[in-house]
Amino acid sequence: MMKTLKLLLFSWISMFSFCAVGQTEVNIKGKVMDLQHRPIPGVIVNNGINFTITDQKGAYHLLTDTAKCRYVRITVPSNCHVPVNELNLIEFYKPIEKQNLSTSYDFILKKREQATGKFTYLVFSDPQPKDDFHFVRFFTETVPDVKKFLSTIKGEVYGFVEGDIVSDALHLYPLYTSAVASWNIPMMHVIGNHDFDKRYAEAGRTLDKTKGYGEQTYEAFFGPTDYSLNIGNIHVICMKDIEYLGDKKYYTQLTAEQLEWLKKDLSYVKTGTTVFLNVHAPIFNIANSKQVLDVLKDYNVHIFSGHTHFHKNEILAENIYEHNVGAVCGFHWQGNASRCGTPNGFMSVEVDGNNVQWHFKSTGHDLDYQFKVYRPGEFDSQPEYVVANVWDWDNSYKVRWYEDGVLKGYMEQFSDIDQDFLDSGRVKVYRTDHLFRVKPSVTAKKIKVEVINRFRETYVKMVNL
């Protein structure tokens, strides 16, 4: 009898232990269908850890740890339109219901009538309003400027915001989302360090998430922080590269779990594909940039980032180009320029198949405003020089000058603090290297500055002395 009781007790303990270990793991299911409820096979589905694809019936099953996974999400295929909600925020995810494990997580997509390889991709870095004054500037300067620019574009347009949507003022999310909804384009976001609830660490560092976690408010508006989709020939990835500790403390890096997620996501993408990776902190400056670049090495990659309030292009490898985009807010809405002197604005990326071109669009200016010139006496540290700030410069650019109609050669590149930023009254310690100078002769009457970009487009400014 005693032996039987011990055996039953052992069995009960073993069963309890098994349930305790496995109780948060469930096999969630769902379907992906078109508007006529026909199945869409081959759609990639993931829960932030595990991946699968839909079968011929559009169905999927996905082993999910509900203690770690908060959303199931799909990678929208290129033969479907990107779904949006009433505020034009993309809808690619569904919250996992821990209390109702029988839920079917179904997605409805609108099939394209024909494939598209041509579209415009607008990149917004750091809108970052902190108070009513900041938001008024965003609403009266940025919002109408984007509307005006959109009226000049033909074809599909998508907007991507590279984090710091607000500046710790999460109560401004409703105002922000209603403002950008007026652009009437699908809007996608990544999380920045100022988009976390500063009272909490991020979810990955929080054991009891029922009391709150850093991304919770962001997710309520924009969904999970790591996701992907396909537009035309481009595979688009959006990721969190801020590891948030709480109270405004953070690391700039991808966690080991995120690197695994990125590897799994790209395992479904043909090598050589053009990839757009959207992050907040620039990859060239994060702690584990080498590991990220190693994951990306087999693809043609454009990285779009923000965070620095600089505009800077970095060629990280022959096939990997990073655009650290100048901020919408410049330097926190004081003055009209980022720390490098790039005007407040955003980037317009024109995509045609695998051909990608880009131009920075300055707020209040036409797209052909690609550099500015200071006359002698206007740049404090260079009183005898004509100075050009060529914000979208990379090493393929040519910056030449003419004196009274005669080509004199290339302008000298140098590093200094931009005068417009200096005049804004902010901390005077930020230098940029996309400055060029030339000292005219004492008899010169007219200087022409000619900038030729990597797309062989020529921009010219004249300076009368």
Compact description:
By secondary structure, the chain is an alpha+beta fold. Helices cover 17% and strands 32% of the residues.
Give a structural overview.
The protein has seven helices and 28 strands. The model is unreliable at about 1-20 (pLDDT under 50). The protein is elongated and about 85 Å long. It has three domains: about 25-110, Immunoglobulin-like (Sandwich); about 120-360, 4-Layer Sandwich (Purple Acid Phosphatase, chain A, domain 2), CATH 3.60.21; about 370-465, Immunoglobulin-like. It has a six-stranded mixed beta sheet with strand order 11-12-15-16-18-17, with no helix packed on it. With about 475 residues, it is an alpha+beta fold. Strand 17 (about 310-315) and strand 18 form a beta hairpin. It starts with a helix and ends with a strand. It has helices at about 1-20, 130-150, 175-180, 215-220, 255-265, 290-295, 420-425; strands at about 25-35, 45, 50-55, 60-65, 70-75, 95, 105-110, 120-125, 155-160, 185-190, 225-230, 235-240, 240-245, 250, 275-280, 300-305, 310-315, 320-325, 345-350, 355-360, 370-375, 385-390, 400-405, 405-410, 410-415, 430-440, 445-450, 460-465.
